[in-house]
Backbone:
């Protein structure tokens, strides 16, 4: 999916919601655990309930890899189901890869050829040769970690050099030499609030993937106030706040309701761009 197609989806659906499929078998409803593939059964129900209200899905690979072969089969089935039944949704592999060039080349092959996904999250800290292999695929996206929502982000990302430039600012500036607004996005946590102004000062037109709304306490309104562009420029992710809103048999229905609530808020924010 290219940039214009993504923008069209956002304004057509009046949503820039991404649903995170961080599926923990210990948190899914008890009745699903009797299924042959509980993870896929959960994902399928969540996808069908939330698809009208979101434009993207973000399966986090850690939640599948931890179950070995069974987990990866569930991941593959989830991807196949999305492609066959909801082909206009943008799919993000939340894998946070990034290694020396020949290793990154294999990671890129995995997500862009083997699974044919739209995008993958990548860690930037090994530099250009660890990121470039992911940028060699037409129509595919690298989503580079820039300023994350976790508490530990302050340990490195906000450290300053002698000129007062913070590390995340260096990442934003340098990485724009590698990719463009057509194939490079950035991860910026919703909990960073007004820091979005600093992000937009350096990367005014790049799309941002924004986790941290909902369970992590980030404010959608604040994200939009400081981070939204004329093209929207945002994919706001919610995982736990949607998929685990209920542990009962109505879990999918409740997830759909939570997604719709966010979508309505997003529609209001998009209306303000007119």
Residues:
């Amino acid at each position: 999916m290219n940039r214009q197609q993504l923008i069209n989806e956002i304004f057509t659906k009046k949503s820039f919601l991404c649903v995170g499929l961080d599926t923990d078998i210990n948190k899914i409803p008890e009745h699903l655990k009797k299924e042959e593939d509980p993870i896929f059964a959960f994902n399928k129900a969540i996808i069908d309930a939330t698809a009208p209200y979101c434009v993207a899905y973000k399966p986090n690979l850690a939640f599948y890899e931890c179950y070995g072969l069974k987990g990866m089969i569930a991941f593959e089935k989830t991807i196949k189901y999305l492609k066959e039944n909801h082909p206009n949704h943008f799919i993000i592999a939340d894998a946070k890869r990034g290694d020396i060039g020949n290793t990154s080349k294999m990671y890129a092959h995995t997500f862009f050829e083997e699974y044919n996904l739209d995008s993958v999250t990548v860690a930037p800290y090994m530099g250009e040769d660890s990121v470039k292999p992911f940028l060699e695929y037409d129509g595919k996206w690298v989503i580079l970690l820039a300023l994350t929502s976790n508490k530990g982000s302050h340990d490195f990302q906000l450290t300053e050099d002698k000129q007062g430039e913070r590390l995340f600012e260096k990442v934003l500036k340098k990485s724009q030499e590698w990719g463009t607004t057509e194939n490079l996005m950035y991860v910026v946590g919703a909990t960073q609030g007004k820091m979005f102004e600093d992000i937009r000062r350096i990367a005014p037109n790049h799309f941002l993937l924004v986790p941290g709304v909902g369970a992590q306490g980030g404010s959608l309104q604040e994200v939009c106030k400081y981070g939204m562009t004329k093209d929207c420029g945002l994919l706001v992710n919610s995982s736990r706040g949607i998929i685990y809103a209920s542990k009962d048999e109505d879990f999918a229905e409740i997830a759909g309701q939570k997604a719709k609530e966010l979508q309505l808020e997003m529609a209001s924010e998009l209306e303000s761009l007119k």
